[in-house]
Design goal:
Helix 6 runs antiparallel to helix 13. The strands form two sheets. Strands 8-7-6-9-10-11-12 form a seven-stranded parallel beta sheet, sandwiched between helices. The relative contact order is 0.14. It contains 14 helices and twelve strands. By secondary structure, the protein is α/β, with parallel strands linked by helices.
């Protein structure tokens, strides 16, 4: 098999260990890339390639690229979404794609647990208070995660890892997703609910939507204004799904609402962003997952599927055309 590895040097540092590199070398005739590829670069290098191992920064398999993909059978993506890389033309040619979406999703789900406990227990506040010589006030108040009611917006890969993680906390979970029926949610012990019901009723809301035209500003002013006065609102999906101006207004008006924002419409977040000045906005620089130590597992997952492909076994991490169409672009 002729295999092209498109990961740039900056990505290789954390996604390719020496052991993984040796494994790739044993799989066939390998062409290594060392820089960030342009569309023209990918077109030039894809000719005669059977399998392409991709990662962050790999350009789209556009019609122009596909014209030269005379042997391509499988794309193994070491990152999560493939929505920005593939197209109807890609699938029409019979090319298959696998990704480390499940590995990414599990790590992001873990981050939600961490973010929730941090905010509910007010850890940053008390850590800073102690460092400045203070102590808790006699009438202090904090919250825990046990027995909470949680609303999930979107019920794709990440929530399906998150829900089992929440079970030890005995959380009661509702979810909204127009593409997932109540029976599928019930298998996870989750109640299907309308999005406006979740925003009005749940003290904790976690957003898990892909960035598509359909979801742009789906979390609008009306929904945000309906948040409970003590709500914890978390977004680890994409910044574009939220009307940030409306959220800013709500956080200023309802100071008891706390927002944990891992993603933003513009990244990096500008230095003069008003979110930086709000005590009830917990800002994280787009690092929910995977944590750096998990990146090698992302690569190993897709390499396992390359082995499966070569040996005509079922692919564990395959992304269908339908699923790809609903992933972040």
């Amino acid at each position: 098999m002729n295999i092209l590895v498109t990961l740039s040097e900056s990505v290789k540092k954390t996604f390719l260990t020496e052991e993984i590199t040796r494994r790739i070398e044993s799989m066939g005739s390998i062409t290594w890339n060392s820089s960030i590829l342009t569309e023209d670069d990918l077109r030039e290098n894809i000719k005669g390639i059977d399998i392409c191992i991709t990662g962050w920064g790999t350009p789209r398999f556009s019609e122009k690229v596909l014209e030269n993909a005379d042997s391509l059978k499988l794309v193994a993506h070491t990152a999560g979404t493939v929505g920005h890389m593939v197209s109807d033309e890609f699938f029409a040619r019979g090319i298959r794609v696998v990704s480390a979406n499940k590995v990414f999703a599990e790590s992001v789900a873990e981050s939600v647990i961490g973010y929730l406990l941090t905010v509910l227990r007010d850890i940053p506040y008390y850590t800073n208070k102690m460092k400045s010589g203070g102590w808790k006030d006699p009438d202090y108040y904090n919250r825990g995660l046990l027995d909470q009611e949680i609303g999930l917006i979107g019920f794709g890969e990440i929530p399906r890892y998150l829900v089992p993680m929440l079970k030890p906390f005995r959380a009661k979970i509702k979810a909204f997703d127009k593409y997932v029926d109540a029976a599928a949610m019930a298998e996870y012990g989750v109640e299907k609910a309308a999005i406006d019901e979740i925003f009005a009723a749940c003290p904790i809301i976690s957003v898990h939507l892909p960035a598509t035209e359909e979801t742009r500003h789906m979390i609008d002013k009306k929904l945000l204004e309906s948040l409970r006065d003590d709500a914890v609102f978390i977004n680890t999906s994409r910044g574009s799904v939220i009307d940030e101006d409306a959220l800013l207004e709500v956080l200023k008006k309802k100071t008891g609402v706390r927002a944990v924002l891992d993603v933003f419409q513009k990244e990096p977040l500008p230095d003069n962003s008003p979110f930086r000045k709000l005590d009830n906005a917990y800002l994280i620089p787009h690092m929910a997952g995977p944590t750096v130590d998990r990146r090698k597992y992302a690569t190993m997952a897709v390499l396992d599927d390359i082995d499966n492909f070569m040996n005509k076994r079922p692919l564990v991490h395959e992304i269908s055309a339908e699923k790809a169409s609903r992933m972040t672009r």
